[in-house]
Amino acid sequence: MRLASAPARPVVVRVETSYVPAKDGSEAEARSEGFVVSRLFLRIVRDVTPERVPLERAGLTQTLAVGDVIEERVQVVNPKERHYVAVVVPLAAGVEVLNPALATAPPEARPSASLTLAPSYVAFRDDHVAFYYDTLPPGTFDFAFRSRTTVAGRYVQPPARAEMMYDGAVWGRSHGARIVVEAKAEGAKAP
Q1: CA gap 183, 68 in Å, rounded
Q2: Backbone angles phi and psi of 27, in degrees to 5
Q3: Which residue has the higher pLDDT, 171 or 187?
Q4: I need a labelling partner for 165 at 20 to 30 A (CA). Which of 7, 37, 67, 95 fits?
């Protein structure tokens, strides 16, 4: 491309670049550019101590069955006070979030842990849960919510992410993973 301009008139060019990574989100490594983010989930089974499943490295595969209830746990370390922060926890396809604030929510929708700090706003969406803060003080913050596996298949579990909404250079993410949801065996009891 060639641009010509008279000496008194400057030329301004805006370039936007986007790309699709070569690897899918299950292979995403944790990264810290201002926030440290880690993620694990608990497999909830009635009358049994929950099984802790840490996502310690990228690309791990976790196998679940249709109907399993999972408690998502995300931890964010914020080294200094920041304003307008979003913590976004994507869900693998084949998994649906359980919103405990709904009047029709089942008892298993309520997580066993509470949030460290109440968000300014929370959004339970089909494909993610997001916690928004007008101000996030320095410290370590824990987030918890529950979901249920609904459709058998192999899915990508994208990393959880914390970011400043108006400063894209400040962010952090957890590891990605792969989720396999198997059909429940006939005659199996619900969790």
Answers
A1: 11
A2: -95, 0
A3: 171
A4: 95
- Over residues 122-144, the pLDDT tens digits come to 999 999 999 999 999 999 999 99
pLDDT, tens digit, 9 for 90 and up, residues 42-76: 998 877 888 888 888 898 999 999 999 999 999 99
Judged against a pLDDT cut of 90, whether residue 97 lies above it is answered with: yes
Q: What would the CATH number be for the domain defined by 26-176?
A: 2.60.40.690
Q: What is the distance between the terminal CA atoms of the chain, rounded to a whole angstrom?
A: 62
Residues 6+ apart with CB under 8 A from 135: 81, 82, 83
- Quick one: which of 40, 78, 70, 42 has its CA closest to 56? 40
Q: Strand pairing of 82-90 and 69-78?
A: unpaired
